[in-house]
Design brief:
The chain is mostly helical. It has one domain (about 5-265). It is about 80% helix and about 0% strand. The chain has 12 helices and no strands. Helix 1 (about 5-15) runs antiparallel to helix 2 (about 25-35), helix 8 packs antiparallel against helix 9 and helix 10 (about 185-210) runs antiparallel to helix 11 (about 215-245). The radius of gyration is 18 Å and the shape is globular. About 45% of the residues are buried.
């Protein structure tokens, strides 16, 4: 991979990580269309660190509150000391499904699961469930109303993102809508819930690549991809929040179905 490819893929990662259209699918499709080699699941996971930083910066106030709440609850030896501490520990619990399943099926996810046939099918299937969640959701709840059980259920939905094409943001927004969250709250919680999963997988793959030996050029290209993903990811957060409030998830549902059909029709 050269620096130009790293920039293009960084832009793709940042633009698609938070939109419910699957960044993994686009990081697989774009190189295919341009005649480049598949960058691989490891590279895809590592440049997510750029979008992780974007979330940390954009939601810094909420994240600081959650961290302080969790710390105070440890000092007081009461995990449910406040709403912030309860939500912070609920996010930890909600991250367990994707962490456990990701480690268990790591080999499959990095190889056979990246087939275009699976990606095309996943795009369509999750689009259907996202549409159903939009239709039946009461859209009346806020993040503060979520129980630990609610967060764990959304965490199970987040684990669907291990299947390329499903989309982490898409599956968590779907889960939030099924539980009655309004669109903006579902999206905001998707960002917060994704922090442990994105950070953990990104750092794990980065250490693995460093251990294998990237070389100076390889490391530079990855750093370029991460930096570009941060910029484009930060811009896409506000775009998604405003877009969801105005138009809902239907445009993304349509996009997913069309893209899935194109993949299955022409590239499989």
């Amino acid at each position: 991979m050269n620096w130009f490819q790293a920039i293009v893929l960084g832009i793709v990662q940042g633009m698609t990580e938070f939109l419910p259209i699957s960044s993994t699918a686009h990081l697989r499709i774009v190189p295919h269309l341009l005649g480049w080699e598949d960058p691989g699941a490891a590279f895809s996971a590592v440049i997510q660190l750029g979008t992780l930083v974007a979330v940390l910066v954009y939601f810094r106030s909420e994240i600081i509150q959650l961290v302080l709440g969790a710390w105070k609850s440890l000092v007081k030896r009461n995990l449910w000391l406040s709403d912030d501490s309860r939500l912070a520990w609920a996010i930890v619990v909600g991250s367990l499904p994707i962490v456990l399943l990701g480690l268990t099926f790591k080999g499959y996810i990095e190889s056979e699961a990246r087939s275009l046939a699976l990606i095309g099918s996943s795009l369509i299937v999750l689009a259907v469930f996202l549409y159903i969640s939009e239709r039946i959701s009461s859209k009346s709840r806020e993040i503060s109303s979520l129980s630990v059980k609610d967060v764990f259920l959304i965490g199970i939905c987040q684990a669907f993102a291990l299947i390329p094409g499903c989309s982490r943001s898409g599956s968590t927004i779907m889960g939030g809508l099924f539980l009655g969250l309004n669109r903006e709250s579902a999206a905001r919680f998707s960002f917060l819930l994704g922090l442990p999963a994105i950070g953990g997988s990104g750092l794990l793959e980065l250490f693995s690549l460093l251990k294998e030996g990237l070389g100076q050029e390889g490391l530079l290209n990855i750093m370029i991809g991460i930096a570009v993903a941060f910029v484009s990811g930060y811009l896409s957060i506000e775009l998604l929040l405003q877009f969801l409030k105005k138009y809902g998830t239907l445009p993304f549902v349509i996009y997913r179905v069309v893209l899935g059909i194109l993949i299955l029709s022409f590239w499989v």
